[in-house]
Design brief:
Layout (H helix, E strand, L loop, with lengths): L51 E7 L2 H9 L3 E2 L4 E3 L2 E8 L1 H9 L3 E5 L30 E11 L2 E10 L12 E4 L10 E3 L1 E5 L2 E11 L5 E5 L5 E5 L1 E2 L25 H14 L4 E5 L10 E6 L7 E8 L8 E5 L9 E5 L2 E5 L12 H11 L4 E6 L16 E2 L24 E5 L9 E6 L7 H16 L4 H9 L1 E5 L4 H9 L63 H12 L3 E9 L4 E3 L4 E2 L4 E2 L5 H22 L8 E3 H4 L7 H9 L2 E7 L3 E3 L4 E3 L16 H24 L6 E4 L3 E3 L3 E7 L3 E6 L24 E3 L3 E9 L20 E7 L3
Parallel strand pairs: 6-14, 18-20, 24-25, 24-26, 26-31, 27-30, 35-40
Antiparallel strand pairs: 1-4, 1-5, 2-4, 3-4, 6-7, 7-11, 8-9, 8-12, 10-11, 12-13, 15-23, 16-17, 17-21, 18-22, 19-20, 23-25, 27-31, 28-29, 32-33, 34-36, 36-38, 37-39, 39-40
InterPro entries: GH29D-like_dom, Peptidase_M14
Organism: Micromonospora parathelypteridis
Cofactor: Zn(2+)
């Protein structure tokens, strides 16, 4: 009989290098735009303000939501602390003042941060069992207690829940105690911090630095609850890293790469290794590293006029000049003269020979009479344009402001037109038989390390294929798709114009935000432009403001870059895994990725089996990161992204998982690195210096360690593809006769989802699904107070069904699992 191997359908939300140059990281603030020349008539506000990275403190999640909704660019390195949330913001001087007006505390320029012993800091933690495990009467639960070491120092991360936590002001003080070894009593107490997000109690948690690993911890609530839990080892159960294999080659990338270099190297790899590599071209071209040429003429008051060319700057727009001309006579009409690319606006004169043209009138004349040279002309921002326009002192040149070259950036002309993005596909069998893995880097332009990390991983695959047996297994057992830069237009802008650019370069702004001083604020956040849990459906974490760094776009999938991802996974349906690589912060996360703030209603959480598979995969991936230089991504930074980071409405991971059943990870590379010399944790940055202290933050070290993790993800996918073994499950403590009510739960030998019934019917895929007690916790506990029969089956992450049971057919064998709990009370 053919074995049953199903991929369970997931809920879909309704509506719901050739020539390589090393580029040093930018130093200091972004350079301002070119200074206006004398007599140009340009407003000084056309010169974009410099930005800086500052440390901030917010009172809590509600303030975070308000700050993001206001369009502020918050760095990903958010940290929960007892007094609220600390993080980093990319801001101008004016925005700093605006944040302060909102109640945000500015802590200073970002120079790393320190976690005290009291500071905040999967299902692997299911080994943690409490005295009151998860029963109906428990008031305190130990969710997880994880021990890890880094740089020779030991740390313990603890999460616990109390039933009193949701109170506005709970009379709860979590006290953490630990033993110091076998047959020793519990010692000193530590206070835990209450974590509330969007008004909802999550849990209490803390990260503690300890001299020795405890075996158990005890958590006590001031309301009377007590729970004891075993301590687990974090990042200890993983295969040996590939880098330990004899002859294994690594360290191929020696500096940052712009999109042209990334794509050139991808094509060269395909030419060099045609037996295992090829290029797939995405069908939707980007909008291009290009802009209309512009000028703001006449200051910023009611007489100011913003002018934009019809042609792209590099296609003639930059050659246009506009001159507002006063003539000596009286009673003259407003008119426009065009000679080549020179536009003269002959201003109207009244009866006393005074200039009489308003900004609104001049704008209309330019659009109507410029012989197609001017596409848009309008008053400045929200002005009514009622002011009388003053003559200019000479012709004002329009510019697309893309002629600036950043110090240290690669030389050579940047392609200006639309870009066709190449996908580097690596695999011995590229015919759909093997599980596909999509690696997508640089959705956000300023994030340079994800691109080098992804390229390093591709280099390792092709260079080690013939000499390393583990790499050979990957190449012959998976089908890998690399998008080395999914945002080439924005990335070029980050390299050559504005290092802090996050979005693409598509300008959807109406006139009020379309003047050239706004040029660093245009574009769509590509990771807010997808269809599931989107801002358009009311989820938090995306903005409707076209000048916000989390602008979701005018519609779902409005951008060619996001359309391309959907095209790719639909064309290559064997893609079962995806990693969206970002920086920085060190988080590894998955679904749920978004929530509706009112009530914190998340997108559907993965089934318990999928959640367990994510945690198991994370343990393997992050263990390989640690193997490079002991960088530890801590447990608090792993899990559903809306639980460990914030709500990201319309992110790509949500769409791929819920729509296509793809295990979709998000990764913020560049996690904090512990410095034993200072006792501090040094945070990452978007463009860290490439070479630096190998034990601290540097682009090179991050590239190598996180490439380790991507390689392990390939091994996870290869193992998944070879998995043909059924899972097993049991009911604990199991069927039998009991003299009083009993608590029972399901256990599985591997990550698996359980479907069950208690009414005597046969279980199907429509039966109740065994759920977690709470997010980040193990399965629920059934309090059985009367005789009950359980029927169930389990399905593992690869779709194998226990005992080869077919839940889609009424098989008379009924080879599902069965157990009866008989309660005989006196």
């Amino acid at each position: 009989m053919q074995r049953r191997r199903l991929r369970i359908a997931l809920l879909t939300l309704p509506a719901l290098v050739a020539s390589v140059l090393t580029v040093p990281a930018p130093v200091g603030a972004d350079p301002a735009a070119p200074t206006a020349t004398a007599g140009s008539g340009r407003s000084p506000l056309e010169v974009q303000e410099s930005v800086r990275l500052v440390r901030i403190q917010l009172t809590g999640a509600d303030m975070l939501d308000k700050v993001v909704a206001a369009g502020f660019d918050l760095e990903h390195g958010l940290r929960r602390v007892p007094s609220g949330i600390e993080g980093e913001a990319v801001v101008t001087a004016a925005q700093t003042a605006e944040l302060q007006a909102m109640g945000v505390q500015i802590l200073g320029d970002d120079e790393g941060f320190a976690w005290s012993e009291e500071a905040d800091g999967g299902l692997q933690a299911l080994r943690t069992q409490a005295d009151q495990p998860h029963g109906h009467e428990a008031t305190v639960r130990v969710v997880r207690a994880d021990w890890f070491t880094t740089k020779g120092q030991g740390f313990l991360y603890v999460e616990a829940r109390t039933t009193e936590g949701q109170q506005a002001d709970p009379i709860v003080t979590m006290q953490l105690e630990n033993d110091s070894g076998r047959r020793t009593s519990f010692g000193f107490a530590r206070t835990m911090s209450r974590f509330v997000d969007s008004g909802q109690y999550m849990f209490h948690r803390n990260l503690f630095k300890l001299d020795a690993r405890p075996n158990q911890i005890r958590v006590t609530s001031s309301t009377g609850g007590v729970a004891t839990g075993d301590v687990s080892d974090w990042l200890e159960d993983a295969p040996p890293p590939l880098t330990e294999n004899r002859g294994y080659k690594s360290d191929f990338v020696d500096g940052y790469r712009n999109p042209q270099q990334l794509y050139s190297r991808a094509k060269e790899i395909a030419r060099q290794y045609p037996d295992i590599a090829e290029i797939v071209y995405l069908p939707n071209q980007t909008n291009g590293y290009q802009r209309k040429a512009q000028a703001t003429i006449g200051g910023t008051g009611q007489s100011a006029v913003v002018v934009s060319s019809a042609a792209w700057g590099h296609e003639g727009g930059n050659d246009i000049t506009v001159d507002f001309v006063e003539r000596p006579e009286a009673n003259l009409p407003l008119s426009v003269e065009v000679a080549g690319k020179a536009i003269r606006v002959l201003l109207a004169k009244d009866a006393s020979a005074g200039v009489a043209s308003t900004a609104t009138e001049v704008a209309a004349a330019l659009e109507a009479q410029s012989q197609g040279l001017i596409d848009r002309a309008h008053p400045y921002r929200t002005n009514a344009g009622t002011g009388i326009v003053a003559p200019t002192s000479g012709p004002v040149a329009l510019t697309d402001s893309l002629d600036q070259k950043r110090v240290g950036a690669p030389e050579g002309e940047v392609p200006r037109g639309p870009v066709t993005i190449p996908v580097l596909r690596i695999g011995k069998h590229r015919d759909g038989r093997n599980p596909g893995v999509l690696i997508q880097a640089q959705d956000h332009a300023r994030e340079w390390v994800p691109a080098t990390t992804s390229l390093e991983s591709a280099e390792r695959l092709v260079h080690n294929y013939k000499t390393d047996k583990e790499t050979k297994k990957i190449v012959e057992g998976t089908d890998v798709f690399f998008i080395l830069s999914n945002n080439p237009d924005g990335a070029n802008y980050s390299f050559y114009n504005f290092a802090s650019q996050r979005r693409n370069m598509t300008n959807h702004c109406p006139d009020e935000n379309a003047d050239p001083a706004r040029r660093n604020s245009w574009g769509v956040d590509l990771n807010r432009n997808y269809r599931v849990g989107s801002g358009h459906d009311g989820y938090s974490g995306a903005s409707t403001s076209c000048v916000s760094d989390t602008y979701q776009g005018p519609a779902e999938l409005s951008e060619p870059e996001s359309k391309n991802i959907i095209w790719l996974v639909e064309k290559y349906s064997n893609i079962k895994f995806m990693m969206s690589v970002h920086s920085n912060g060190g988080q590894l996360f998955w679904q749920p990725g978004a929530y509706i703030a009112d009530g914190r209603i998340t997108t559907p959480r993965p089934p318990l089996g999928d959640e367990a598979f994510y945690w198991q995969s994370a343990d393997r991936i992050l263990s390989q990161v640690k193997a490079h230089r002991e960088t530890v991504v801590t447990p608090e930074n792993v899990g559903g992204s809306s639980d460990v980071l914030y709500s990201s409405a319309g992110n790509v991971r949500e769409d791929l998982y819920h729509t296509y059943g793809i295990y979709a990870f998000g990764w913020e590379v560049g996690g904090s690195v512990y410095n034993p010399a200072t006792g501090d944790w040094q945070g990452g940055s978007f463009q860290p210096v490439w070479e630096g202290d190998p034990n601290l933050v540097s682009g090179h070290a991050e590239t190598m360690e996180y490439a380790n993790g991507i390689m392990e993800m390939f091994r996870v996918a290869a193992d998944w593809g070879k998995d043909k073994k059924d899972p097993t499950s049991k009911l604990v403590p199991g069927g039998g006769k009991y003299s009083k009510p009993v608590d029972v739960r399901f256990e599985t030998n591997e990550p698996a989802t359980i479907y069950y019934t208690t009414d005597g019917s046969r279980p199907t895929l429509q039966s109740p699904r065994y759920e977690a007690t709470e997010f980040r916790e193990p399965g629920e506990v059934f309090h059985v107070s009367e005789t009950t029969t359980f029927h169930w089956f389990s399905v593992d992450a690869a779709g194998n069904i226990e005992q080869n049971y077919d839940p889609t057919k009424n098989d008379r064998r009924n080879n599902y699992r069965k157990a009866t709990i008989t309660i005989r009370t006196k």
